[in-house]
Design goal:
Helix content is 33%, strand content 17%. It has 22 helices and 24 strands. The strands form 7 sheets. It has a 5-stranded antiparallel sheet with strand order 8-9-10-14-15. A 4-stranded antiparallel sheet has the order 3-4-2-5, with helices on one face.
């Protein structure tokens, strides 16, 4: 019980880091710990091996009865025996108004573990959650905070002072554990609620995942590659970034990954520009990146499955994480000195560094260092051999002459002399973007007399408040613009069957485009974006065309707006294609290139990637600038190299403004706001805010 008391003391010592509402209601706090077996055996006479399902149910008896009926129905379906139902003793008198208005009825189901494992418990829990969702019983009224035979979570819309007095179990001397994880929340992007308090089922997270919208899409896109499809979708926008990270981690564990594998794929090290890193470890991260995109943003994370406890930081190290080690304890926290510890007892006092792993093996009472963990990961399989067998790098080769009708496409895609003089010419001359404040002070497109580009209706978000932007120049070592184009057919680590085209930039040249599209193993299909008549009709046809391609053995789609007719804007087509492929569960298997004539500025490329494009081939921009090369004395290839270099540097700067450091995590992140589009078109961007 001393461990629980220390956890409560640590939580109180960090109470200044949490949030409160005006009436004193906390943003949420809680504790994740080992199930106190002796407590249940003694207090509740549980003699069999058991698991505990900790549930929040509605206070209203009618709604609670409906929720319980779904629980019992799922238990019957999966032949789960309930040893006991326990109404968890709580003291509601200490709650503030907001917490009291949404207080749940807390019940524990003690489940017989005979012929049941953690995987079955996971399926049972997800089935209950899906039944509730189908009945429109939301997470804020019906929620399972933990369901395991190893760990249990006590949490709520509480402050650190209230937690041990609200849950009376936490005061019981028999309530013990050999570890505990505590967390107090400072809510930023979601409204505080009982279910969003931390810790979650596996982790506690201090930080903010900037790419969470895209991560949610990518997580759900894996439904076509997993064994247990019934648990999908696992993520959604109603949950916080931390909750979605926890659910994704949990699903990876159920797919056979261990804690070390799972968290190093979700929060990978910045390996791309690290010359000091062992090649075997670089190969591990590169291989893992083919199947998992990074969850990018500040993240100090502690996670536990009951057997191992791991602490780690994001690739940029953007959260404080200190620890001390004594003869019999490790104390980790956002600050040092959270528990009174005699100086003579401290053997180690240090901090977790960017992407460092500190692992405590709870079963064998030993600490596994970062070096040991990384050596284990990199030597699991011959990752470098697998990559070398399939990786193809196509060098940039520029065309020497234009192939398109420059005048026609200049009018079609609304290229202007002012745009060339103010922005494109600077990229050709210096390889850098023109100095200005675009797009933040650009005039709103819907107020302009002339119809502009579709791109002009979008404004980029940026990192702010508790979430710092990055510096793509001074922090260049953590940035990566690499793109690996391949078709992924499974999530497990195994030898690759499809080629991997590796690019240093997501912006392609003609020779690179031709090399990839001609690859027989991809069996690429080109879908034209040209249309006549109504745009909504054209978009429905476009979606049908994508679905028809999915019925074939195609692994690469090209969205092509070249031609004499009007075309669906490339950004709109990109968002639609991403949504259709994600919903099909085949997004990792089927990739797509946007062959766009309307894209020419770095912000355009950023938008296309943020809404899902794997690669972009700006065929007309390259021809247009090639045609302008006669104005300069410099070689044509040098001018185009400057343009591509300038676009890439600006793309990285745009990513940095949102706190994102890799193209792979920026892809699908949707870090833009729609400004001035009507509801019909906004719907194609998954309902992102419109101003």
């Amino acid at each position: 019980h001393q461990m629980i008391q220390q956890g409560m003391a640590l939580l109180k010592a960090l109470s200044h880091r949490g949030g409160k509402s005006s009436d004193g209601t906390g943003d949420g706090c809680g504790i994740l710990m080992q199930i106190p077996k002796h407590f249940y055996q003694t207090k509740h006479n549980i003699t069999k091996p058991f698991a505990v399902m900790m549930t929040f149910l509605p206070k209203d008896e009618s709604a609670r009865g409906e929720a319980v009926a779904y629980i019992n129905e799922v238990f019957a379906t999966y032949e789960i025996s309930v040893l006991k139902e326990i109404e968890v003793p709580t003291d509601s008198t200490i709650l503030k108004t907001k917490a009291m208005l949404t207080e749940p009825h807390v019940v524990q189901y003690i489940l017989d573990m005979e012929n049941v494992d953690e995987a079955k418990l996971y399926t049972v829990r997800r089935s209950i959650e899906q039944s509730w969702k189908g009945a429109k019983l939301t997470d804020r009224t019906c929620y399972i905070s933990s369901c395991s035979n190893q760990t249990i979570v006590y949490k709520g819309l509480l402050t650190p002072d209230e937690l041990p007095y609200y849950y009376l179990d936490l005061q019981d001397e028999l309530f013990d554990s050999n570890f505990c994880i505590v967390h107090q929340r400072f809510s930023t992007n979601t409204t505080p609620s009982w279910n969003l308090a931390q810790p979650f089922r596996y982790l506690a997270h201090n930080g903010e995942i900037n790419t969470v919208s895209g991560n949610i899409q990518w997580s759900n896109a894996r439904s076509g590659l997993v064994q247990n499809k019934s648990v999908y979708p696992i993520c959604n926008e109603r949950h916080s970034d931390s909750a979605n990270l926890d659910r994704t981690l949990e699903n990876m564990l159920q797919e056979g990954f261990n804690l070390e594998n799972a968290i190093t794929r979700l929060l990978p090290k910045a390996y791309e520009n690290n010359a000091m890193l062992a090649d075997e470890l670089k190969a591990y991260y590169e291989y893992a990146g083919l199947k998992n995109e990074p969850w990018d943003g500040p993240a100090g994370v502690i996670l536990c499955d009951g057997h191992k406890l791991i602490a780690t930081l994001d690739r940029n190290g953007l959260r404080p994480f200190r620890y001390i080690q004594t003869q019999d304890q490790i104390i980790l926290a956002s600050e040092i000195g959270v528990l009174d510890t005699p100086l003579a007892d401290i053997k180690v006092a240090s901090r977790i560094q960017a992407s460092e792993i500190l692992c405590v093996d709870l079963d064998h009472n030993r600490i596994t260092t970062d070096e040991e963990v990384k050596a284990m990961l990199s030597n699991q399989y011959p990752y470098r051999t697998w990559l070398n067998e399939k990786t193809i790098e196509v060098p940039v080769v520029h065309e020497e002459a234009t192939t398109l009708d420059i005048d026609f496409y200049t009018k079609k895609f609304k290229y202007t002399k002012a745009e060339y003089a103010q922005e494109l010419k600077e990229l050709l001359e210096t390889g850098k973007e023109a100095i200005g404040s675009f797009p933040y002070t650009a005039q709103l497109q819907m107020l302009q007399p002339n119809v502009g580009l579709f791109f002009d209706y979008f404004k980029q978000n940026f990192a702010q408040v508790t979430n710092p932007p990055l510096d793509s120049i001074r922090e260049q070592s953590v940035f990566s613009s690499e793109v690996h184009l391949t078709s992924v057919s499974g999530l497990k680590d195994e030898a690759l069957t499809n080629p991997i085209y590796k690019f240093k930039s997501p912006i392609m040249t003609k020779n690179q485009y031709d090399a990839v599209v001609s690859e027989n193993q991809f069996k690429a299909k080109v879908i034209s974006l040209q249309f006549e008549g109504d745009l909504n009709v054209a978009l429905e046809k476009f979606k049908r065309n994508i679905l028809a391609v999915l019925e074939t053995d195609c692994h690469l789609i090209v969205l092509d707006d070249e031609g004499t007719n009007k075309a669906i804007p490339s950004l709109l087509a990109t968002s639609v294609a991403q949504s259709v492929l994600v919903e099909s569960g085949r997004r990792l298997e089927v990739r797509f290139i946007v062959k766009a004539g309307d894209a020419r500025l770095p912000i355009h490329y950023a938008m296309l990637i943020a809404y899902g494009a794997d690669l972009i081939y700006p065929y007309f921009a390259l021809d247009y600038l090639l045609d302008k090369a006669s104005e300069f004395e410099t070689a044509k290839s040098t001018l185009l190299d400057r343009y591509l270099k300038g676009c890439l540097q600006t793309l990285l700067k745009l990513m940095a403004k949102t706190g994102v450091s890799t193209v792979s995590s920026y892809r699908g992140s949707k870090v833009f706001e729609v400004v001035g589009l009507d509801a019909e078109l906004t719907a194609y961007f998954n309902g992102k805010p419109t101003l």
